[in-house]
C-alpha cells in the first residue's frame, strides 16, 4: 500500500550523515515511503521498482534547509538601517515596525510577502518569531500553513524595558493573551505549531517568566529565545538578574533551558564556559546567526567550540539582523565569519568547513524538529531539487564541488523542487 | 546637433557627489549629451526638451559600478576551494587553472562564460587580470570588446617562484611576450585597453620589473598589481627584497607606484604607515576586495583610514578570492568586514557606511578611468536602470532606503538597463 507520498527521485544526491560526513551519490536513487526516507541507493532495490520514479537528470537533490531563527515581522525592513548595535537597533528600527502588526490588515499584507519568499527559498522548516499580538500571530500561522512549510511560530512576550507603544501591560496580561492564542492555534494546523517565545530576558519580568513556565508545562510546547548576543546586552542581564549565575541561568531557573523542554537559543556569541557547559548538558539548541551578528556588529560565535563539543547547533538567518531568508547564504556567512574570527581574534579555533556549514543548515538544525535534515533511513522526507545548469563552468566538477559552488553562487531561481514530509510544495 | 548618445532618462536617480554626499532625486531628469552627463535636474531645462526622453517610471537610475580588481581566468572556480590561505591557494587552485588558458579553445569557452556574467552584472568598468599567455589574453580582450563594457585587461607577468608549468622562462621572454601582446592590442579596440600586470613582487624578478618599467614608459599604459594582502606574503616580500623599505617600495623603485604612472593595487590589508603615506602622496588607487580578504582569511583592510585620508579607493571583487562578480555584494561586504574589524580588532576605526560603500563602488573606483562614476556634469555617461518592484515591502520607503535595500537584496534580475559612455548595452 503506497500513497502519493511514496516515490523515487533519481539524481545527484548530497546529504550529511553526521557533522563531519557529507555523502554524495551521483545518479543515485532516493526513496520516499509514506513521507519518510528509505535511504539513498546506487541501484534501486527490488522492493521499490514499482514506485513512481522521477528522473531529475543532472539536478542535485539535497535535504531541505532549516532556519532555526527568523523574525517574520522584521522581513519588511531587511537590508535597511543596520548601522546600529542591537539595543539601539531594537528601539530605533525594530519595535516601531513590530508595533504596526497590531493592525491586522498590515499584518496580512506584510506576512504574505514574508511567506511568499519563504516558500520560494530553500527553507523547509523554520522557528519563527511573530510579535506580541495574538491575533496577528494567528494570521501569520494561517498564512504559513498554506505554504506547506513545517514551521513553529511564536507570539512574543514582553512586559518590561520596552517602549510604551510596544509592551504588554503586565505579566498577567501577557500570560492571558498567550493562553488565549494557544487555545486558538494549538490543534488548528497541519504544518504549523506554536512555540513559546519570551523575547529575551531584558524584556521579561520574573513574574512573566514564572507564568510562561506554567504555560509551558500545561501545553508542553518548545521554547525559543535569545542568548548572549551582544556585549551591552550581556552586561544588562547581569544587572537585571543579580541572582543568575549567567545569562542562560536566568532562563534555566524558570525551567526553560533545555532538558525536557525543547529549547532553541539564538546567537550564543558571548556564552561563558559555564553557560556552554549547561547548554551541552541540557541539549539546548544553538541557532547560529552569523550574518546578523556581523550586521549588528555583535561579534562571531565560537562555532568551532560548539561543533567540537558535539552540541546541538543549526543556522538562523535572524531576519532582519540578517538581510535575507537564504540558509545557503547563512552557510557561507558561517564559514566567512569563522575565518575572520580565526584571523582577527583567536587562531586556536579553526574556521568552519563547507561540510560543517552544510551540516548545520540541514541535519544540525533539523534535529530540533525530530528526524529531519538527512536522507538516512527513517528521516522525514524534506528535500530540494537544485538546478545548477545556468551556472556554467568550462571544466569538469565533482558532485561535492557542484554542491559547494551552489552554496556560494545560487539563488531562488536555482531551486526547482521542494518537498516536506513527502509532499511536493513546488 | 545630437546623435544616438544624446537623450534624457527620467526616474528615481541616486549618485555620489563625493565620498560623503549621496544625492537622491525622485522623478528627476538625467541628461546625456554626446555620451557625457549634463547633470540631474528636478525640472528638465528648456535646452534639453527636444532630446528623446525615456521614462523609467519608478525604476532607479544610478552610475555604473566599477570593479577595480578581478581575475577573468579564475571565474571558472569561483565559489570553490577557499579553505586555504593565499600562497597555498595560489599553488593548489589558481596556478593549475590559469595554466589551462594556454589552450585557446579552453580560453574561449571559459572567457565567454566570464564575459556573459560581466555583461549581465552591474559592472560597467573593470580592471582585469588575464594569464601569462599573450594570445589567450587577446582572446579575452576580443570577447570583452563585444560586451560594450569599458575594461582594462592585462597579460600577467611571472618569472619566479611559480610552478614550472606556469612560469615564464626568463625576464627577457616575459618582456618580449608582453611587447608582442601590446603591439597586437594597443590600438585594436574601442572598449578595451591594455594594462601592465606584474602579478606581484614574489612572482617578478628585479630584472623583469626593470624591463616592465621600460615597457610602461614606452607605451604609457597604467599598472595593476597586488599589495600587502596576506601576512605570509608580506613577510616573504621582506625576505625577497631586503633593499626595499616596505612592500610598496619594491614597486616604487621601478617607477610603478603611482605619480605619473596610473596605478591600482589590490588589497592593502597590511600596509604600514609609511606605505600608506607613499600611496597617498602618489595617488595610488586601492582596490579594496573585502570578500576575497575574508574567503582567504587574509584580514580586513583599514578602509576608514583610507577614506579619512581621502586616498583613492574603490572596490574589487577579486574573483576567485571573491566568489562572484557583483559590486553590490562588494559594497555589502565592505560594510560587513569593517564592522567585524571594528568589533574584533580596532574600535578606533568606525565601520563603513552605506553611502561610503556606494561611493567606493561608483565614483571612488571610477576615478581610475577618468571622470567616471557619477552623474555630475561632464562625467562619462555610464548608468544602470534598476527595478526593485519584485522586492515587495508593505511600508513606504524613501529613495535612499530603496537604494540601500537594493544593494543588500538585489541580483542580476533586477538590473534592467546598462549604459557606457551613452551607449545602451541592454
Task: Give a description of the structure.
- Two copies of one chain form a homodimer.
- By secondary structure, the first copy, chain A, is an alpha/beta fold.
- The first copy, chain A, folds into two domains: 7-62 and 374-424, Roll (Urease, subunit C, domain 1), CATH 2.30.40.10; 65-369, Metal-dependent hydrolases (TIM Barrel, Alpha-Beta Barrel).
- In chain A, 36% of the residues lie in helices and 22% in strands.
- Chain A is built from 13 helices and 17 strands.
- Chain A has helices at 86-99, 104-120, 134-147, 171-185, 206-219, 231-240, 247-252, 273-282, 290-295, 303-308, 327-344, 354-366, 399-409, and strands at 7-16, 22-33, 36-41, 53-63, 65-71, 123-129, 150-154, 156-157, 192-194, 197-198, 223-227, 263-267, 285-288, 313-315, 383-386, 415-420, 423-424.
- Chain A has a seven-stranded mixed sheet with strand order 3-2-1-4-15-16-17. In chain A, strands 5-6-7-9 form a four-stranded parallel sheet.
- In chain A, a hairpin with a 2-residue loop joins strand 2 (22-33) and strand 3.
- In chain A, helix 2 packs parallel to helix 3 (134-147) and helix 3 (134-147) packs parallel to helix 4.
- The longest helix of chain A is centred in the last third of the chain and has 18 residues, at 327-344.
- The model of chain A has no long low-confidence stretch (mean pLDDT 97).
